[in-house]
């Protein structure tokens, strides 16, 4: 049975090693760059920003005069009264055309405020795009660290299994020599089987961690890769974290979630000004030109058709003028619009405050978790050291028959638990400090 386990483990190791050699190695930055370029949600945010950019352009174009051309052609058939007051069969064709233009001179600054509102909407959308990118970077960093953590768990589990394998070999020789009962060997082999399951579970966790990263990158698992293992910062007892209020004061100035909420508030304020402008008169200027031609128009004195050029000279009309529109009563639509816009401003102010509060809570949570993880790391360092020493002492006593395999396995399990807790605290601390650095304006790097 032991040999079968060893062969299976060797086969798995060979497959994993061969696959790893064939796979490309991705750094954290490469993962982030790929996600920012290919993630569907980010692509949608880019399209959304392009839409609002078009809205801003249209708001600017609305300040320009319009120009419209009209063309009409009419054909007439049948009897009509002629010049000599008699009915004749006359088929005629007439053509008319016109040009008109209009420009708003003043409408309560609605056009001006519409441009400013559209500009704020675009800026808010660009900040939303940046926030989506920031969220993606944090998610990828968390997934990346989860892979590193899971990989170290695999290493720890495999190392413990190797120790058990050595103990099986030693115990087997003692059993053959008659120094130990066969039950001791069976208990050690049972422990080896449990540790083999731990290795499999750790490998499954590593595989699921990779799957999570692939899905964040919108990559199928068939296009898998291995991540680069960076040199992580050393965690020392003298490490300190920046005060949460200092981080918050800086973050509130640079984080896109807050800046986007501020732009949305400015947009709502411009909308309120537009609504108030609807209560004021509107002044516009317009001009038009019109002409007409009919192929049957006659000069009754000479009996000849009137030429095209002569008709165009005679039939042309043009004019221009100003239009003043004064709102007197519009069923309270304008007044209701002002009231609704004011409500929207107040609601957006609350949204801005809520965004700031959420940012502060996230920073405080990250800080508290980092401190707790650091304390756990320091405590677990001592636990690992003492557990290693305890296991070494237990192993020596087990080798000379002073304790049974149950006590030996318990000591070994304690060491495994302490090592796992130490790794968890380590990666928790690294991730939380990276979040704080990110909120403080630093890029995520490992």
Amount of beta strand: 5-15%
Shape: elongated
Q: Order of strands side by side in the largest beta sheet?
A: 2-5-7-10
Count of alpha and pi helical runs: 10
Radius of gyration: 41 Å
CATH T-level fold name: Outer membrane efflux proteins (OEP)
Report the order of strands and helices.
Answer: HEHHEEEEHHEHHEEEHEHH
Explain the overall architecture.
- This protein is of the alpha+beta class and 446 residues long.
- It has one domain (22-64, 107-280, 327-439): Outer membrane efflux proteins (OEP) (Up-down Bundle).
- It is built from ten helices and ten strands.
- The strands form four sheets. The protein has a four-stranded antiparallel sheet. The protein has a two-stranded parallel sheet with strand order 1-6.
- A hairpin with a 4-residue loop joins β8 and β9 (304-305).
- The radius of gyration is 41 Å and the shape is elongated.
- It starts with a helix and ends in a 7-residue tail after the last helix.
- Residues 1-21 have low confidence and may be disordered.
Secondary structure layout:
Blueprint: H1 2-22, E1 25-26, H2 28-38, H3 40-61, E2 66-76, E3 79-81, E4 87-89, E5 92-106, H4 110-177, H5 182-216, E6 226-227, H6 244-254, H7 256-277, E7 282-294, E8 298-299, E9 304-305, H8 308-315, E10 317-325, H9 333-399, H10 405-439
Parallel strand pairs: 1-6
Antiparallel strand pairs: 2-5, 3-4, 5-7, 7-10, 8-9
Helix pairs in contact: 2-4, 3-4, 4-5, 4-7, 4-10, 6-9, 7-9, 9-10
